[in-house]
Amino acid sequence: MSSSVPGSVWYVAYGSNLSAARFACYVGGGRLTGARRTYPGCRDRTPPAEVASVLIPGGLFFAGESLTWGGGMAFLDPHLDSQVAARAYLLTTGQLSDVAAQEMRREPGADLDLGLAQARATHALGDGRYETVLRVGERAGHPMLTLTAPWGSGDVPTAAPSAPYLRVIGGGLTEAHGWSPDRAGAYLAAAPGARGTWTPERVVTLLTEPR
After folding, report:
1. Residue 124 · residue 132 · CB < 8 Å
2. pTM
3. 64 neighbors 16 (Cβ within 8 angstroms)
4. Residue 119 has what pLDDT?
């Protein structure tokens, strides 16, 4: 299956779904070790047609409280002058609809209206967390879409992420981009929400200590 499949879109992950094992739970169902939630998976459980490591404009920040991991959740602020390390998964539009439903803590099964999201930079599916679809580019002729909150890093109080959450994100950075623990630790510790609570050294220890 190649990137020429009609109706395909790139789902761009910048948080725990940087981890292929974690994202596999969204597609095929299941629960990753350390998480509190079991995912039902997509109607179509076919693995992504392609996977690519990408950098997208904006900045990473942590806010709110994750019901899956505890602590702050990762969001993308497109207005921050930086780059976010991400992983792009080539899916069908139906699969992306089911991934988005699970991110919004809804049961998958209905195709979302992604037409506007493919045509313009921002499209709100709702006003909650991960209910704003951002078009962050195009790759191999298909739109690159990600999910975030409708608010930016300066609009809400930030919150420190939990250790299990950072471990999965950091492992995903190493897996997808080949980053060393030092580079992943510096990147994550610098993000609003983590900054001031997590030092690069603490994150490196988290990423290198035995499970």
Report:
1. yes
2. 0.91
3. no
4. 60
